[in-house]
Amino acid sequence: MDSVQLGDRVLALFEDGRSFLFKVQDGKLQTHHGIIDLASLVGKNYGSVCETHTKERFYIMKPRLVDEIYKMKRQTQIVYPKDIGFILLMLDVHEGKTVIDAGVGSGAMCAALARAVGTKGKVYAYERREEFKKLAQENLTKWGLADRVEIKLRDISEGFDERVDAIFLDVPDPWNYIRQCYEALNGSGNIAIVCPTTNQVQHVLEEISKFSFVGIEVWESLFRQYKPVADRLRPFDRMVAHTAYMIFARKVMNDWRD
Fold it and tell me: Where is S-adenosyl-L-methionine bound in this sequence (predicted)?
């Protein structure tokens, strides 16, 4: 069985649904349910039951990427997991693909892209703010994905260095960079753009129509969680409703020289 080692990242999952994500090392972690002696977890099997100093029970679990994203250190709005999965499929990102992440922010979407391209692919991330670049690098390193990503500190108005299979564009004014994205995409390449408001979507659609893109789609993802209680099954009272509009398109060639 796989057991906890010193330096592992572990999720402590309590019976009330609360969870805490931390690195196993010498020291103690204060929680709402009591103190966890971190070093005491070493050698225990994942999935095992442990207790805080107040005898509150919790399970030690391997954190999923979705756990890391929800609990990550961030300085920007992130792409939510409910949208990430759909974006990955629409971009057709898988082992060996090359992808540009334009506007890396805190690194949530970049991490999902990096995991999807595998060890044979590559993500080229562009960010113009030094503090965001540094935070994204820290997060990717923490999650063991930094070797799949090359982060460049540059304004994307200058264009991209690569020709790639897919582009994810997440900046406040994406319509200003459609030309740069078109030039960086391989033929039949996919682009995904996220916008929080409808007027931004309109600007993108107006601009993207000037280039040889086909299969243009606009989506909004609404996702509702239910309370897992069999005898009174009902939705949670609150939900993350609108997060972003997602625009997808595919590049075709408009000139034999492309």
Answer: 127, 155, 170
Question: Is 256 part of any domain?
Answer: no
Residue 193 lies in a domain: yes
Query: Is there a domain that residue 88 lies in?
Result: yes
Beta strands in the chain (DSSP E): 9-14, 19-23, 28-31, 34-37, 49-51, 57-61, 98-102, 122-127, 149-153, 164-169, 185-195, 213-220, 226-227, 234-235, 245-251
Query: Which CATH number goes with the domain that contains 137?
Result: 3.40.50.150
170 has binding-site annotation:
yes
In tens, the pLDDT along 127-165 reads 999 999 999 999 999 999 999 999 999 999 999 999 999
Q: Quick one: 15 and 132 in the same domain?
A: no
For the four alpha carbons of 157, 122, 129 and 90, in that order, the dihedral sign comes to: positive
Structure tokens at 192: 């995904």
Q: How far from the centroid of its chain's Cα atoms is residue 246's Cα?
A: 15
Q: What is the pLDDT of residues 176-198, one digit of tens each?
A: 999 999 999 999 999 999 999 99
Q: Which domain holds residue 134?
A: 67-251
Q: How far is CA 161 from CA 99, 157, 158, 178, 183, in A?
A: 12, 12, 9, 15, 10
Q: pLDDT of 29-57, one tens digit each?
A: 998 889 999 999 999 999 999 999 999 99
Nearest CA to 208 out of 221, 225, 191 is that of 191
Structural contact between residues 160 and 99, judged by C-beta atoms closer than 8 angstroms: no
Find out whether 127 is annotated in a ligand binding site: yes
